[in-house]
Design a protein that fits this description.
The chain has helices spanning 2-21, 55-58, 68-76, 142-150; strands spanning 41-48, 60-66, 84-95, 98-112, 123-129. The protein is an alpha+beta fold and 165 residues long. A five-stranded antiparallel beta sheet has the order 1-2-3-4-5.
């Protein structure tokens, strides 16, 4: 049961990172970098190791954060406008049997605004490479891929992650 949840979670996180990596918002709907997100609620941490199919693209330590509005969504299953979810992906370093965080690979962001992001289930997506906080890297082609992937979780308001109690 635990392995199944972990596998489902990893698939979801891979989908989030994948579609976020390829998606760009149209003019006027850009998703800004959420400064100080590490002061928000830490939802959970996942390690995507070399055995995972998406390791080259998504391998590393994923720390997931949520702002206060998003925590309401985790409690109720419906994320209100203003919810922000973060996937902070860090490289993995190994030394003498100890695994630790390396450099930041990217910060993936989901922002809920049912009016601005009507066409994508109410969610805006962006990704910031490395420690960059100003220039998102997503392209317009991924919009359909994001929605298709997250559409699998439509009954959970398009969100794969679950709060670790």
């Amino acid at each position: 049961m635990i392995l199944r949840r972990t596998a489902i979670g990893m698939i979801g996180f891979a989908c989030l990172a994948c579609c976020i990596h390829a998606f760009a918002e149209p003019d006027g709907t850009a998703v800004p970098f959420p400064t100080e997100y590490r002061k928000w609620v830490h939802v959970k941490t996942t390690l995507v190791g070399p055995q995972h199919a998406s390791f080259a693209r998504n391998g590393g330590i994923h720390h997931f954060y949520a702002n206060e509005k998003a925590m309401e969504g985790y409690r109720t299953g419906k994320f209100p406008d203003g919810s922000v979810l973060i996937d902070d992906l860090l490289e993995v370093k190994e030394s003498a049997g100890v695994t630790s965080e390396g450099s930041r690979r990217r910060v993936a962001v989901m922002v809920k605004d049912s009016q601005r992001y009507r066409e994508t289930g109410g969610w805006g997506f962006e990704i910031f490479a490395g420690d960059n906080q100003t220039d998102g890297t997503l392209t317009a082609e991924a919009k359909a891929a994001c929605l298709a992937c997250h559409g699998k979780q439509k009954d959970r308001d398009y969100v794969f992650s679950q709060f670790r109690k």
